[in-house]
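Sharing a chain and its predicted structure for anyone who wants a worked example. Both blocks are below, sequence first, tokens second.
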Amino acid sequence: MSNSDFIFMSMVQFSTDALKRMDANLSIHGISYTEYQVLFQLSQSPTSTMPRIELARSVGRTASGVTRILAPMEKLGMVRKESHPRDARKSLVALTDAGKTLLEDSTTTVEHVADSMLEGLSKTQQDALERLFAR
């Protein structure tokens, strides 16, 4: 196995383990990490709304995939659909007050899990990882 193969396989394994761990910890809030990403991305918009297609891109899903994710979130009151003000063919996804509260509560969990997964690395090593992933 080449060095690059080993590095790639290790990154994929770490990512898989990290997502499982994050999902397990976020389950106390009743959401998955993918749902957390949706809430977070909406919160980053100045109006807390995004076109569904743009939201799909920002969380790495297809349009139909994000629609499947949003349906239960809408039923639970985390998000709501809104009409696009300039294009009736498009719909917007809006973060609700309940979604904002859930995001605030679950962010503490995300930060705790992320910190615990990196606690074996020095500050220098964490900085190096940050630089690598920023490329």
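Comments welcome. Residues 16-133 form a domain with the Arc Repressor Mutant, subunit A fold (CATH 1.10.10.10).
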